[in-house]
Design goal:
By secondary structure, this protein is mainly β. It is built from two helices and eleven strands; from the N terminus they run βββββββββββαα.
């Protein structure tokens, strides 16, 4: 498994290049795929996620957010360790930081792999996945408030009642859509400034029912 972080540079239309942002180097290696974190300058331990697979990885402003997934195979337990932790990678400082999370409301949180998620405003929305510890495919929607460093309880309402439920899903894809409208905000509240902000969730002008016909007109 690998833990390098690479970015493809598309600024030159005829010459796309992969840029190495983080080598993920940890030393020395231990038994069963675990490792001792590499010490950075000043003697502090690098706060990084380590090798991961089947995780969610998305953008929030100038940072990248990683949630959950599994690590290398561990022979003595004959399985891979699963996670429900949150890491942020700052693209400016090129450093990882683990978010110390808390839970608001009556929500329980499963470790998971093969889940799906994306960021809308400052909320990372994650659906489904597989809990390898209890051997169960999940059907929950969990919301992580990046600015508040907390998991918040999701109030899910289906348009068609119980029949509208998505159900248990694993190895799926979720994508958020941000409509950059015009005439709704002043400069201080422009859609661009709201894109990664908590205030996006409180703007009534953006909370409109999705209309495929209207969306087709904009395309």
């Amino acid at each position: 498994m690998f833990e390098e972080l690479r970015l493809i540079d598309t600024t030159h239309k005829q010459d796309w290049n992969w840029v190495l942002l983080d080598t993920g180097d940890v030393t020395p290696k231990k038994k069963d795929g675990e490792s001792t974190p590499k010490k950075e300058e000043g003697g502090e331990v690098a706060d990084r996620p380590g090798p991961r697979t089947a995780t969610v990885f998305s953008r929030w402003g100038d940072k990248l957010i990683l949630f959950g997934g599994s690590g290398p195979y561990i022979s003595h337990i004959k399985s891979r360790r699963s996670y429900y932790d949150i890491y942020l990678f700052d693209t400016k400082t090129k450093r990882w930081n683990q978010n110390k999370t808390k839970i608001k409301g009556k929500q329980s949180l499963n470790k998971r792999i093969n889940h799906a998620g994306d960021v809308l405003g400052s909320i990372l929305a994650v659906y489904g996945g597989y809990d390898s510890e209890v051997k169960e495919i999940l059907d929950d929607l969990v919301l992580y408030d990046i600015e508040e460093h907390a998991w918040v309880e999701a109030d899910i309402r289906y348009l068609k009642g119980e029949q509208g439920k998505i159900g248990k899903r694993s190895k799926l894809t979720v994508t958020s859509v941000f409509f950059n409208g015009t005439g709704m905000f002043n400069d201080a509240q422009s859609p661009k400034s709201l894109k990664w902000n908590r205030r996006l969730w409180f703007q009534e002008a953006l909370q409109k029912p999705f209309s495929p016909a209207e969306f087709a007109k904009t395309g």
